[in-house]
Amino acid sequence: MRLFTIFRIAMACCAFCTGAARAADQPADNPGLTTPNAATAAPIEPYTNERETQTFTVNADGSYTKIDEMTLRVNNEAGVARVAQYYIWFNRNMASVDILEAYTTSADGKRHDVRPEQIRDVQEARSFDAPMFQDILEKVIVFPAVEPGARVHLKYRKTQMQPIVPGHFSDFTPPDLAPTHHFRLVYDLPAGKPLYADARGFIALPPSTKNGRTRYEFRYDKAHFARLEYGSIAYVSYGDRLMVSTFPDYAAFAAKYRESAVDASVNDPAIVGLARSLTAGDPTPRAKAGTLYDWVRKNVRYVAVNIGRGAVVPHRATDILTLRYGDCKDHVALYGALLDAVGIRNEPALISSGTIYTLPDVPGYGVLNHVITWLPELQLYADSTAPNVEFGYLPSTDMNRPVVLVNDGVLSRTPSTATMSRTTDLSINVARDGSATFVYRLESAGWAAEQGRALLRMQTPAQREESLQAELRFVNLSGTATLSTSNLNATDGPLSLTMKGKLEDFVVPGTAASIPALTSFVGGFQSDARYWLGERQRTQPFVCRNVELHERTQIALPANFRVLDVPEAMAARNLFIDYRSTYSYDASTNVITVTRDGTTRFASEVCSPEDFTQMRAGIETIGRDVRAQVIVRSTLADAARGASATLSAPPRVIAGSPVRVQSAD
Questions:
Q1: Which residues constitute the domain of residue 69?
Q2: Which chain positions lie within coiled-coil regions (predicted)?
Q3: pTM of the predicted model as reported, rounded to 2 decimal places
């Protein structure tokens, strides 16, 4: 009763407020003309960076002082969550941060100062499990009285007492993707230390030199950023960003890293002995490299500290071997020492891991955040920090990226694409009551096979059960299932899975009903179509991985079911996609067979909006086809015996209609 009363009061208040708002919106000089109501106005960005100036005073040794002064306006409730706390990252053994001024100006113009107890140093979350890197801190400023319409003001000084790379300085500035106005970056350096820049979207002012120092200034102003589209690559790969550096080119950058990575312990007897004992039975250099790769990825724990987020000098290989953990550069150092011990050439390759697929024209640690291994004689890259990636493949975050080869000091590139192949066979036997039993067999080959094995190796029994249920939920089915697999301790080759189980209410008996023309559970054409069709139009580059899929399903119906209609066969062919499906019905056995086969031919892991335009019609064909259904009619199970005389006659023979082809060159 009380809830109903509250509901009525709320509805009355809403009606009153709506009327009042409409009355208030009426212009006084024209009562018949209304302006848009706030409730129907387009959403606004959570906050606006109204003004910010960052000033770097750089010393000859690469150390610097940064003064950052900003004003952020909170536009709505979402902005409160994003602006009310501000984080400043620093390494407490190399830098310090001092808050010079911090306060909130509320919507009514009142100033609310940040008190000392509202400023705290906290350990960065990503270093909790990395004992060697617990000096990474974040200074957190909690602003009071933050509400829509308020402004937060912050001025702080960061003093980098020890340079990340002695004698050099670099700074990377990506946009916040929020409305930004009056944004200035000023770099003040000794006149004899030139600053190189790659400024895309930023306006560079002419440098000015005075009293032995040169001042560089960049300005930025942008009121609107387009929504990041589903599956798109990082904005800085194609959008605005600023990189400044005292390194003139990537050769100089590589030389500095090479110099810092020299390790006298690489020929230690413990390392040499381990490498030779592990590879004693391997007949080829590739086999030896694979054995050592598997040992490192399975025995050396990766700690989540990127190369640009702390020290850039790898630890001694002997220490890494003893401790059995390290970050990416430590993995490369130990793996490289093991390879050296068996005579396999290798070198570090600096890379941007993630969804950044391009490098700026000048080098720096803001974009280069990872290190992998290049084996020139095998023409292979290896990333031993990826415990679920088979030797010979790379994780998707390393694919199609420019790299800096440290020994040669040149730019190269990781493979542009790698194909995942997958074959599935689904057999469904429908019972008279509409339930069903099924057997689902899957074989995965290529980069996805070892990822699947690693996932299954790490699952608890509860997680295994949940994953099986998730497979069924993905295709809107419910039931029970068990799983058997090929050897999960294998480190290469295909992965085979077999799911067996029972489906509840697979089809409704006693009436005309539809049966989904499934050919796979999670993964396969249905998953790929959902991803590809995540956007109707694309204006941004997006990730596209090559697949080769072969799927087959047989649905055996009992005598009290007869087929009324099956879908049409479909095909799609264009520059990027080759796809074909078939549907058939055997009246003598009451069995429906569905096949779907297809491959993609993307030239790289990144497709352009123009590519999407060319492939869209074919993708839509696949999207419609994977939603196809078979129409059946049945009698109720308990009446099936009485109807058997009627149903014993051969049903109408139905074959798929002539294939419908969508093609484009």
A1: 47-239
A2: none
A3: 0.84
